[in-house]
Amino acid sequence: MNAHAQTSADPGRAHSLRLAVLLATYMQSANLPLPNAVLRLIQGTLSMTDDQAGWIFTAYLAASAITLPIAQWLAGRLGLKLVYQAALAVFVLGLLLATVATTPLQFIAARIIQGLASGVLAPLSMAIAMETLAPEKRMKFGATWTAIVLLGIVSGPSIGGWIAEHFDWRPIFYISLPLSAYIFLVVALLLAEKKPEEAPSFDFFGFGSFTLALIGLQMLLDRGERLDWFDSPEIRIEALACGLGLYLLMVHVLTSKTHFLNKRLFRDRNFVLSTLIFFAVGFVLLSTMALTSPMLDEILGYPPDTTGALTIPRGIGLVGAFVLMGWVPERFDRRLFVAAGVALVIFANGLMLDYSPLMDWSPVAVAGAIQGIGIGLLMPALTKVAFSTLDPALRAEGTGLFNLSRVYGSTLGVAIVQIFFFNNTQAMHLALAANVTPYRAAAHGGTASMSLPALEGLNHMITHQAAFIAVIGQFKILLVAMLVVSPLVVFLRKPIPAN
C-alpha cells in the first residue's frame, strides 16, 4: 500500500502529516531572515565585521541552493522518511551550533549547516504533503505551501526582533527546537517509508559543475571586498572555479542527452521569461529586508522589536495579496497581474529612494506594504504564466529550476548590495570628511583644535550619514533590477486556462 492510500484511509493521519510538514516549511523559511533585526547584537557579541554580517544570509541561501536539486534523488535512494528525519536532525544541529558560537566563522558555519538541511526539507516537505492529497487537490495546496514559505520569510525578522529585545539574540534559535521535535515525532509515527521500485538516476557531472560555479561565485562575492578583489590569489582561484564550473555546465547541457537542466525547458518562452522575472523577485525581496533592518537598527537606532515589527506591513501585504489571488477567476488574464505586480514593486522601491534620516517609521511601513502587495500579486500570477504552457512531463524539473531561480536571486542580491554598500559607505565617508577641516571650523566660529571625544562624535555622525546615503544607493540598484526585467512582461504569451 502506498503513502497516499494509507493516508486516504485515515484522514486524521493525513491532516497531522500536512500540518507537520507545513510547520517545517515555515520553520526553515523563517530561519533565513530570523537574525535580520538583531544584526547589531550578533555583531557586537561575536566581534563580526560589517562585511561578515552579509554572510549570515548568503551562507544559508547558498547552502540551500546546493542541496535543493539533490533532495529528491537522496529520498529516492535512501528513503523519503529517513532523509527527511536526517535533514531535521542536521537542521537542529545547526540551530544549536548557532547558539553556542563565539566567533564569526563558527556562526557562519552553523548557518551553512542550517542552509544545507533547509534545501532538503523544503522540497521533501512538499513531496510528503502531496502524497497525502488526492491529485485534484494538489494544485490548490501548492499555493498554500508557497504562502507558508512567504509568511516565514516576512515574519522571521519580527519574531527575532521581539525575542532579542526581551531576552537575547541567542534564544531566537531556540524556538525552532520544540517545533523540530514535534515534526520529527509526527513523521516517525505517521509516515510510512517509501522507496521507488527503481533507484532514480541523477546527473552528478552537471550537478557538480553547477555547484562548483555557485560556490566559486559566492565566495568571490563574499570575500572579494575583504581581500581587495583580484589582487588576491584566493579571489583569482575562486573566479577561475566559477568560470570553469559554468563552462563545464554549458558544454554538458549542450552535448549530453540527459543532464542536470533539461534543454526542453528553455524552449518554452513563458517559462524562460517567468524564471528570469522570478529571479529578479528573489533579488529584490530579501535584499530589501537585508538593507532595511540594518538601516533602522544600526543607523537610525531603532530597538530590535521595532525593527522587526516594521517587516509586518510587508508580510500582511504580501500574504494578503497572495491569498486573494487564489480567488481570482480563471478567465482573467494573469499577465495583467504580473504587470501590476511589477509596477507596484517598482513604485515601492522608488518610494524607498526618498527615505531620510529625519523620517519616522511610516514611510518604511508604507513602502514595505506596497512592495509586499506587488510581490503577492506577482508570484502566483507568474507561476501560472510559467507553467500553463509548459509540457506537463517537464513540470517537476521546471518547478525545481523555477524555485531555485528565486533562491539564487536572493543569494546574489544580498551579496551584491552588501558589496556596493561597503564601497559606497567608504566613498561617501571620504567625500564628507574631506569638507571637514580646521579652516572651515574656524570660519564658522569654531576652533582649529578639537578634543578627542568631539572628533569621535564628528566621525560617528559622518559615518552614519555616509552609511545612510549608501543604503539609498542600494535601493536604487534594486529598483534598476526590476526595471530591467519589466519589459519581459510584454513578451509573455497568454496562459492556457486550466481544464
Please, could you describe this protein's structure?
With 499 residues, the protein is mainly α. The chain folds into 4 domains: 1-202, Up-down Bundle (Growth Hormone, Chain: A); 204-259; 268-420 and 463-499, Growth Hormone, Chain: A; 426-462, no CATH class. The chain is built from 20 helices and no strands. It has helices at residues 3-9, 11-30, 39-46, 50-53, 55-67, 71-78, 80-100, 104-131, 135-166, 176-190, 204-224, 233-255, 269-299, 304-309, 312-325, 334-352, 362-388, 395-433, 438-443, 452-485. It is globular, with a radius of gyration of 24 Å. 45% of the residues are buried. Mean pLDDT is 83; it is low at 3-9 and 442-448. It is found in: Cell membrane. It comes from Pseudomonas umsongensis. The chain crosses the membrane at residues 55-75, 82-102, 108-129, 141-160, 172-192, 204-221, 233-250, 271-291, 311-329, 336-355, 361-382, 403-422, 466-492. Its main location: membrane. This is MFS transporter.
Features:
75% helix; globular; 20 helices; disordered N terminus; mainly alpha; 4 domains; Growth Hormone, Chain: A; 499 residues; single chain
Give a short synopsis of this structure.
With 499 residues, this protein is mostly helical. 75% of the residues lie in helices and 0% in strands.
